[in-house]
Amino acid sequence: MTYIQTRMTSVALLSLCILSSLFAKALPIRDTTITVKIDLKKKAQVIDNFGSSGCWFSEGIGKYWPKEKSEKIAELLFSKKLDAAGQPQGIGLSAWRFNIGAGTMEQGDSSGIKDFRKRSDSFLNADGTYDWNKQAGHRFFLTKAKDYGVENLIAFSNSPPVIFTKNGLGFKTEKDYRSNLREDSYLAYANFLSTVIKHFDQQGLHFKYVSPVNEPQWDWSRKYMQADQEGSPWNNEEIYNIVKALNSSLKDRKLTSKILVSEAGALNYLYGGSGGSSRQIQNFFDPKSKMYIGKFAHVPGIIAGHSYFTEANDHILVETRKQLADTVKAFGLAYWQSEYSMLADGFKDGQKGPRTTMDCALFLSKVIHTDLTVGNATAWQFWNAYEPGPANFNTRYYLIALEPEADFKSGNFSVTKNLWALGHYSRFIRPGMIRIITELEADKTSNMVKNLMVSSYLDRDNKLVLVAINYGPAGIDLQLELKNAKKKYRILSRYLTTADEDMNMKPEFSKGLENVISLPSRSISTIVME
């Protein structure tokens, strides 16, 4: 990640320029002007997708809430259209994660999960039959994702069905860091997952990927009636065994879905860490390892992990992803950041008290930027698209804030700045686009600090997309310098998000690249060049 801070010589003049025109006329290079160098021949990773999850709360929204509200939420997440003013109607996600439930909803209060909203149906009944009418709310959003053209549908499981678990529950009651799946039920669990996938294939809802384990490093043990959600630990040998069984089950049913491994609870467990589910890249993708899964036909060259707890400060944020990128490259893999929200306290940036919705959006954009430019992530997925909580401060867990009724059968919702922060990437950086190495060059008299982050992406038609984050308290001007462009770029569009309540992704348009692009303080911009 590259950071730049420039020495301000005339704050008043810069403020006037920003107010008068976001695309200022070309001016002599000043201390506040930074040249962005983009060589279109310097290519990095190919982007696969940007996504989110609808875990837990999809059921109530999709099944019970008024249709106009559930439809609007779906539009905000999946639409790629613009309104008459050029404002994006949605963030155009290219991946949607569907939770295959474990059956704790049927158990009711005896499930041991205290919040009824975090219990989930299972398609599998206790007698071994299937009821495909279950998970109606989750299926609503899955269908909407497909209708809007979301390119990647991903099925994941937090726990095996309760009829296969050791304690008959969707979470652990014993803290032993071993799977809750019974030893005699590995094939049964694998067949359950492949049966679900086959059913949805027949409905025209194809899961490109299925993830059988989630955050295997955590113990997921709670006292009865004190559990927060479904979950199970897994050690590496257990993961190997379920991947082997699932690979065979998918093959027997002639299904094409790929197995996503391993959804590590923190990125450092992918290349290091300690315990039974550590060094997962080496254990699973070294051909010399007894747990090598690269030989299985349904296992792609992808390792997936979660960016939690690795962003306490900028040094940890960068160094963790450097080590991950080096290890991923050594084994010829791709890295997916498959789940993140601001679970830890890094988002506070060392500040006390509540953080505004724009504070959260800026921190989120910094994590995305670093995963892409330092970790070389080919996919980036936010945890929960919607959860109950405030809309204007500490919006750390969600893109859309819910205000539900007590029974969760109706309610209201509010869009947070997090939605647009992710949308600056997801709406414009489409599957198949290539990240271009981007360099920042400040004036020699300027000071270098961590205020400016810019990344660039190119599609097959040579459309170039830049995402620019101004993290600092002062405006910055960008001067673009392109090399090895096949054609001259004549149209420039910019979509801007600031703390202004009405500025979600405000469109601005210009012609030619002779202009200086002014980035307001504490803002996120997507610049589209055609």
What does it look like?
The structure is a single chain. The strands form two sheets. Strands 3, 4, 5, 6, 7, 8, 9, 10, 11, 12 and 13 form an eleven-stranded mixed sheet that branches. By secondary structure, the protein is an alpha/beta fold. Helix 10 (314-330) links the parallel strand 9 and strand 10 (334-339). Helices cover 25% and strands 24% of the residues. The chain contains twelve helices and 21 strands.
Quick tags:
530 residues; alpha/beta; eleven-stranded mixed β-sheet; ten-stranded mixed β-sheet; 25% helix; globular; disordered N terminus
Averaged pLDDT: 92
How many separate structural domains? Answer: 2
Largest sheet: 11 strands, mixed
Per the CATH scheme, the topology name of the largest domain is TIM Barrel
Question: Per the principal axes of the C-alpha atoms, what is the gross shape?
Answer: globular
Instruction: Report Rg.
Output: 23 Å
Strand content: 15-25%
Which parts are unreliable, with pLDDT below 50 for 5 consecutive residues or more? 1-31, 444-449
* Number of discrete helical segments: 12
User: How many strand segments?
Assistant: 21
| Terminal CA distance | 26 Å
CATH H-level superfamily of the largest domain: Glycosidases
Helix content: 25-40%
Structural class: alpha/beta
In short:
This protein has 530 residues and is α/β, with parallel strands linked by helices. It contains 12 helices and 21 strands.
